[in-house]
C-alpha cells in the first residue's frame, strides 16, 4: 500500500473523522476516549503539527499529532490507523519524528493506556523506551509512558 503523509489542518473533515474513529476505538479498548488529553488548539501553535496519512486513492487512512511538551521534548498524540490498513501507523510515526527533528526537538514522549497492548507493542517496536510517568500521567497505573531520542 502506498501511503503519503502530510501536515493537515486538525479541523479538516478528514482529521475530525479520523480523531472521532480513534476516540471510539479507544473507548472500546480502554473505557476512555482520550479526548480529555488533546485539543486541536494544541497543534495550532509553533513547533506543532497534525498529520493525515492517505492511501494511493487519496483516502484518509490514519493520523497523528505532535505538540510541544517542555524544553527539547515534543509529545506524540492522537496516533491512529484505520483497521485493515498496513504500514499506516509506522508511516505517520516516521513523519512525526522527521517533523520533530526539523522543529528542533531532541526527544519525543507519549503515553498510552497499559491495557492497549497493541499500541504498547507498536511503540516498543519503533524504538520507544518506557519511562516514568510525566505531566498528567505521573503516578498513573493505567498509563505507560515512552520516550525516544531523535536526531536533529
Based on the model shown, name its key terms:
seven-stranded mixed sheet; alpha+beta; Aminopeptidase; 3 helices; globular
Would you give an account of this structure?
With 152 residues, this protein is an alpha+beta fold. It has one domain: 3-Layer(aba) Sandwich (Aminopeptidase), CATH 3.40.630.30. 28% of the residues lie in helices and 31% in strands. It contains 3 helices and 7 strands, in the order βαβββαβαββ. The chain has a 7-stranded mixed beta sheet with strand order 1-2-3-4-5-7-6, with helices on both faces. The longest helix has 18 residues. The chain starts with a strand and ends with a strand. The model has no long low-confidence stretch (mean pLDDT 92).
Task: Provide a compact summary of the structure.
By secondary structure, the protein is an alpha+beta fold. The protein is 28% helix and 31% strand. It has three helices and seven strands, in the order βαβββαβαββ.
Q: Please give the largest β-sheet.
A: 7 strands, mixed
Query: Average pLDDT across residues?
Result: 92
Report the CATH topology name: Aminopeptidase
Order of helices and strands: EHEEEHEHEE
How many domains, as an integer? 1
Give the DSSP E fraction (strand runs of 2 or more residues). Answer: 25-35%
Strand line-up of the largest beta sheet: 1-2-3-4-5-7-6
Extended strand count: 7
- Cα end-to-end separation: 29 Å
Q: Note the total helix count.
A: 3
CATH architectural designation: 3-Layer(aba) Sandwich
Low-confidence stretches: none
Sheet/helix structural class: alpha+beta
Helix content: 25-40%
Radius of gyration: 14 Å
Classified by CATH, the class is Alpha Beta
What best-fitting shape do the alpha-carbon axes yield? globular
CATH homologous superfamily heading? Gcn5-related N-acetyltransferase (GNAT)
